[in-house]
Amino acid sequence: MQGADGVLISAAGRDLDAPRDRNNRTDQELIAAINAGDESAFETLYRRYRDWVVNLAYRFTADPELALDVMQETFLYFVKKFPGFILTSKLKTFLYPAVRNLSIAARRQKDRLYLHEATDFDLEAIPASEPKIEWDNSLKAVLSTLPEEQREVLRLRFVDDLTLAEIAEALEIPVGTVKSRLHNGLQTLRQDARTKNFFDQ
């Protein structure tokens, strides 16, 4: 997928496990630099998270052009938080609701018809480098039968690698609700003959 600035968008998450730039700056340090007027620090954060944002947007929209639009809108939203932005969680946790809401709005604007579930996307869109479990056809079939709220929590946990607390913050729901949805979703996967082998390994 080609980004708005002409570069190819690679698989999501490649840079996320390395939260430091060439100068060894963490996200928090980069944000402090942006607050102090360092524009190059924002560019570093953009390059660090753009792949994840555009792939997440594509999962919600199932449209590569809309995904790129959502990515641009997400970073415009983010840059407007400066100066004075304070990061109190992982940046992925902060950005997730913005990507989700902007994706829903983009789909609604494009379709202007019946709004399908915002996260009812093709699981083929999930980058192969990101999942912690193998998303084969059997797993996709079983996942499609789960309530959307369970699918969303499963993806945030195993695809986006968020903790339970981070999922709760991203979805603005109690941690207990996250645990319940995750437990119920995994229980279905364990009990279904098509997917129980994932848990017997």
How big a fraction of the residues is strand? Answer: under 5%
By DSSP, the count of extended strands is 0
Number of domains: 2
Counting helices, strands and paired strands, the structural category is mainly alpha
In the CATH scheme, what's the topology name of the largest domain? Answer: Rna Polymerase Sigma Factor, Chain: A
CATH class label of the largest domain = Mainly Alpha
CATH homolog superfamily of the largest domain: RNA polymerase sigma factor, region 2, helix turn helix motif
Q: How large is the count of helical segments?
A: 8
Short description:
The chain is mainly α and 201 residues long. Helices cover 56% and strands 0% of the residues. 31% of the residues are buried.
Q: How do the strands and helices of this protein lay out in sequence?
A:
Layout: H1 27-35, H2 39-61, H3 64-79, H4 91-111, H5 137-143, H6 148-158, H7 164-171, H8 175-191
